[in-house]
Every structure is written in C-alpha cells, then in structure tokens.
Here is the input.
Amino acid sequence: MDEVQKAVALKYDPSTMSAPTVVAKGVGEIAKKIVEVARKHGIPVEKNPELVDDLLRLDLFTEIPEDLYVVVAEILAFIRRHDR
Here is the structure.
C-alpha cells in the first residue's frame, strides 16, 4: 500500500509577520501539487513527517504555535543556507 503523501507550505516575512504562517496544506494529490509547485519555483522542500502532521492540524493562514518555533527555525536556517 502506498504511503499517503502530506505537505504543508509556510510563508514567513520577518519584516511584516510575527511568525511563519500556513499558506497551503493537503494530502494525496493536493500534497503532490504543493511539492510540485515548490520545486518548480526553486523553493526547497524539507521532509519532516512529524512537523507536517502538527502543521496539518492548523487552519490555513494561521501562524504556527510557539511550540513549533524551534523546529521551523531550523528549517528556515536550512533554506537560508541553501539560498546562499
């Protein structure tokens, strides 16, 4: 049996936002589309199933809760290193 694919997209602009915000989320075909669009636009994709499960519980356009700041900050640091 195939594993169900899950994906969540976050947006974060520290000049206008106090925390990263969930801007897209889904499972199955929607998740595949989220990953496809990210890759098409050169946005790094990080695999973290536990974090995705936590983020999927949030409503769209909701800031992430404080208990996820450290994990998300590590991913943002990874992305910044990737961009350089």
